[in-house]
Amino acid sequence: MKAETFISDDYRPAEDEPFMNDRQLEYFRRKLLAWKDEILDDSRDTIEGLQETTRNIPDVADRASEETDRALELRTRDRQRKLVAKIDAALRRIDEGEYGYCEVTGEPISLKRLDARPIATMSLEAQERHERREKVHRDD
Description:
The chain has helices spanning 22-52, 60-96, 111-116, 124-139. By secondary structure, the chain is an all-alpha fold. α1 (22-52) runs antiparallel to α2. The radius of gyration is 20 Å and the shape is flat. The model has no long low-confidence stretch (mean pLDDT 88).
């Protein structure tokens, strides 16, 4: 087991330090874990809310409105469930020493991109190429 790396709360990865050093990895690990905890807390709140608000509403329009709200909330939670899987995959990449490198080119993903989207698996350029190819194939 690797010793824990200590970083201050105001630490931000910088371009002038070695890429994906222990401090940067710890920064992104903490960021990913905090994001996952936030999503799981929101999910628990949703489940509790849905259990508490189950009631028989006699007005058809009010019932339809509430069911629409519930469906939207459940769709949001499903998207977040998929996001948790991506967060877990990013945490695995950290543990395996693959985090921060583009899965297509093998080049480092920019720190700005990782800070904005810590689950990113491709560099911005590779992602743009991927999206252009995807758009071309969708148009066929």
